[in-house]
Amino acid sequence: MIPRLDYQDSLSSTTLKFLDVLGRSAFRGDIEKSYASRLAMATDNSVYQVIPEAVLYPRSADDIAVMLRLAQESTYACLSFFPRGGGTGTNGQSLGGGIIVDLSRHMNQIMEINLEAGWVRAQAGVVKDQLNAYLKPHGYFFSPDLSTSNRATLGGMVNTDASGQGSLVYGKTSDHVLGLKAVLENGDLMSTEPVNGERLADKLALKNREGEIYRTLYRIGRERRADIEATFPKLNRFLTGYDLKHLYRPDTDTLDVSRVLCGSEGSLGFITEARLNITPIPRYRTLVNVKYDSFPSALRNAPFMVEAHALSVETVDSRVLGLARADIIWHSVKEFIQEVPGKDLQGLNIVEFADTDEAEHQAKVAELCRRIDGLLASGEAGVIGYQVCSHLPSIETIYAMRKKSVGLLGNAEGRKKPVAFTEDTAVPPESLADFIMEFRALLDDHGLDYGMFGHVDAGVLHVRPALDLCDPEQEVLLRRISDQVVALTAKYGGLMWGEHGKGFRSEYSPAFFGELWEELQRVKGAFDPQNRINPGKICVPYGSGAELVSVDGPKRGKFDRQIPIAVRESYTRALDCNGNGLCFTFETDSPMCPSVKISRDRRHSPKGRAGLMREWLRQLAEQGFDPLSEEIELQSGGLRIKSIVDKVRNTVARARGQYDFSHEVMEAMEGCLACKACTSQCPIKVDVPTFRARFMQLYHSRYLRGPKDYFVGTVESYAPLLAKAPKLVNFFLEKEWAQKATEKSIGMVDVPLLSVPTLAESLRDHRARYFDLAGLEAMSPEQRQKVVLIVQDPFTSYYDAPVVRDLVKLASKLGLQPYLLPFKPNGKPQHVKGFLRAFARTAASSAQFLNKVAGLGIPMVGVDPSLVLCYRDEYVKALGSARGDFQVMLPQEWLLSLPVESLPAAEVKEEAAQPWYLFAHCTEKTAKPSTHGDWGTLFSRFGARLQPVSVGCCGMAGTYGHDAKQVENSRGIYGLSWAEPLARLPKERCLATGYSCRSQVKRMEGEKLKHPVQALLELL
Question: What is the DSSP letter of 487?
Fold first, then answer.
């Protein structure tokens, strides 16, 4: 039995009092102080971990002002505040031990667009890709790009002055900021834009905090111009902290405070809104993917590419390419980055051209291709081949692979993982190749592996050395390498922090700025004299005596190393999460983690759940408890009276409010839909459903289960029994009182009706019902080729029988003899609820039977993707080699395996104007990325057209949507991406592969969609 975990890093009395008073004030946002909520904000995409005292989610700038004005009271003078957006920073910029203020949950509205003037106004919590999706119908986009664009917020982009691919042409975020709105440390609201003349004079005359800021900046801009020009590097990447270089224009006597706020990492105030200029979308885009025999060859050839007047040149090394090949993303890009026969592809330059004039565009591309052909002919520059791509969706897919590079590096095998701490060095582009050779030699001297990719056109390369930060000596090595890289960049006239900001690297600022350091301190003092806003980052107020944060700051490894190695290695899919935050994607049509999309609560994300699991394992270790031994005992042991008595006592204590951190972890796990999208969409392959099931099993070694768990976990036992009298069962289920009683007693709503007629009744006279193993064994191999075996599952066989019936009919129409295998429980519902001992028994029994049947050499087909894929994943993890090698195919896999001539494509022609629309199950299309293409090929062979519909999760996810606690979220998730296309498209032409998806549509729309096999049958 697991112990009670009562550690929760208690809050100070001052913080508690502040939160209490704030809750009774005009503050309208959310206030969270649970340990789980704070843990979710303790990490970002860096190596650091700092647990805050509370998390606030303001709804407006007024909320922030209310918070900061309250904090002016002397009682709360010790409190500090840390602005946070998407949490994608790689250097701990938004981490802190005070109060985190997250603007992403509520302050995410696009306020205004002015197409004539070419600008848009949006709140700080708007995600970059969200903004571009809004601008696209107008023909514009916000051009600064970054790899985390589907979850990075505008506030974060401004605060780090973000940029990425295409920056030589499009510049950095600061180049597009026309004006900002911010809340200062004292609660004053300030708007910034370039000012001169009378307006500047008015600002300088103000007798408040804003006036002090203007006077300080104006003096520095005028008096220290020569020092600024001499100190700030002349690079495309000029991120140095407070951008004094672009603050003041002496020719027009213009001061722009926005330029100092850009790149300030939230250390000067809370940026709440930005007015940004927007760029017309290029009409013509082409990628030239140039392949090399080595990474140095790719680096040294980059200037050759830049000379071609390209928009950007992005370089990727062989390590990143190798990791991409093992990821789901490779399926969609492999045809554009093909291997060169007889050559070893070790480096890649992705060269993009983007123009508004077609003739000019084509001429640029043709000229570069001509010059590359010359290099190939002469065997120069290490070029071994190239491919050209002008198809816009394919270009976006290639960039999706490049953007995923950061996360992919974290999926490297072994304990050492490439980590971010020296990953954004910037040097003059002409020096990059030599700099990188020296950088590589430095890392090689330490015996480190590393991956490299980046923006070679701008002199920026992302280098991530592989370290095991659970090893204290490796943490010391991180410091040593950081110092060496700072010196190396200085040697080449560059920066260590060219793109991703300083954060915990702020300690290097004084030496870099030299005599200007005092002026930066005075800037900080003008904005935040008490050093309360993101203290220690970038700078500290002059004369304050405060210290900067350091690369020696607290790291995740410090906490993870407290977990025994055996436990860490058993739970790698939780502990390996590197915080890249891809699970925070705003894209509602992405299958990735629907629970965080609907809740906007980071606890309910793969990253959040992985972080909670890490801390839970750490606390178990702190109490000397071994979860692996307990799991073995639970798998083998039976019920004991004392254990039951203890569970009752613990459950009563829980009901009375006794704290246990395990309850907070359970709350997050219960919100998971177990859709498994994270296992393939996450570049690290964080596998929440697996460690969730393990956690639930251990949790319930201490606490009693509710009836809902048994109702779900035993569905495969009672469904066949209920199906013996479906009309009687349905008679009661159709009664409102029965549904209410089910909700109140079990916690389940909208319990589905059984199929009438039953599967057996609908196939009463069909041979498919009469499976005879001995008879099949007696058949010749030729006879067996005409047979197909259908593996039943509890949901389609008993609740959606027409789908199985029509699969039988389809097989018959194709000249085959189908047989229904006797129903054998799959165990998936048991696994979802953490009945792992029962699941192991179920899996072993089913595997034994299916292996025996597989010996016939007859294809086996299952209908529901979730259960079929369970045989391929959960069975392997539970049984290992004992699983055997039986294979159950999905319907499309089986149909595509049939000889083409056996399909009646030539006989069936359907009007091209009448396509079918496919809504694929999210588990299916993430685990098997060829799903859309496979079904499309099949329908084409049947003479019909099929269009995949891009949707996320439907919100049902097995029994999640029937859970009374989750039903509102379930309906909300449906509304995110399913409701709109189903309102627009003819439902009679819409197809869904998942039983739960069809059930959700029936509940929400009152109509049940067909399965694709039913449409194929209809075509015949």
Answer: H
Q: How many Å apart are CA 299 and CA 432, to the nearest integer?
A: 8
Answer whether 658's CB lies under 8 Å from 642's CB.
no
Nearest residue to 800 via CA among 846, 750, 864: 864
First to last CA, the chain: 58
Residue the block writes with tokens 């976990």:
713
Distance (Å) of CA 998 to CA 801, 807, 926, 992, 1007: 13, 16, 18, 6, 9
Strand runs (DSSP E) across 755-890, as ranges? 787-791, 817-820, 860-862, 888-889
Strands (E), 733-875: 787-791, 817-820, 860-862
Tell me the CA distances in angstroms from 803 to 798, 978, 1012, one per residue in order: 10, 21, 9
Residue 762 pLDDT level (bands cut at 50, 70, 90): very high
Tokens describing residue 803: 């789908």
Sequence letter at residue 274: A
Contacts of 754 (CB under 8 A, 6+ apart): 719, 722, 723, 726, 729, 730, 798, 799
405 vs 398: CA distance, rounded Å: 11
Length of the chain: 1020
Report how far residue 51's alpha carbon sits from residue 44's, in angstroms, rounded to the nearest whole number.
11
pLDDT in tens, 963-1011: 999 999 999 999 999 999 999 999 999 999 999 999 999 999 999 999 9
Name the nearest CA neighbour of 193 among 244, 259, 263.
259
CA distance 533 to 554: 19
Residue 845 neighbours by CB under 8 Å, 6+ apart:
824, 825
Residue 906 has pLDDT above 60, yes or no: no
Judge whether residue 903 has pLDDT over 80: no
What number of other Cβ atoms are within 10 A of residue 24's Cβ?
A: 8
Secondary structure of residue 184 in the 3-state scheme:
coil
Q: Which of 572, 573, 592, 591 is nearest to 582 (CA)?
A: 592
DSSP string, 351-370: EEEEES-HHHHHHHHHHHHH
81-84: strand order across its sheet = 30-32, 54-57, 99-102, 81-84
Is residue 261 within 8 Å of 182, Cβ to Cβ? yes
Q: Are strands 140-141 and 279-280 parallel, antiparallel or unpaired?
A: antiparallel
Are residues 298 and 433 in contact, defined by beta-carbon separation less than 8 angstroms?
no
> Three-class SS string for 133-147?
HHHHHHCEECCCCCC
Task: Please count the helices (runs of H) and the strands (runs of E) in the chain.
Answer: 50, 28
Cβ 273 vs Cβ 122: under 8 Å: yes
Interval 746-757: pLDDT, tens: 999 999 999 999
Burial class of residue 228 in the structure, from the number of CB atoms within 10 Å of its CB (0-12 exposed, 13-18 middle, 19+ buried): buried
pLDDT tens-digit profile of 929-944?
A: 899 999 999 999 999 9
pTM of the model: 0.93
Distance from the Cα of residue 98 to its chain's centroid: 26
Q: How far is CA 292 from CA 82, 299, 390, 452, 657, in A?
A: 45, 10, 21, 15, 63
- Please report, as a single letter, which amino acid is at residue 35: Y
Q: Is cis: bond before 757, omega within 30 of 0?
A: yes
Q: How far is CA 196 from the centre of its chain?
A: 44
What is the C-alpha to C-alpha distance for residues 34 and 100, in angstroms, rounded to an integer? 13
Residue 432, Cα to own-chain centre: how many angstroms? 31
What's the burial of 134, exposed, middle or buried (CB within 10 Å: 0-12/13-18/19+)?
A: middle
Q: How many CA atoms lie within 13 A of 168 on its CB side?
A: 21
Which two tokens mark 820?
């229904």
- DSSP calls for 615-632: HHHHHHHHTT--HHHHHH
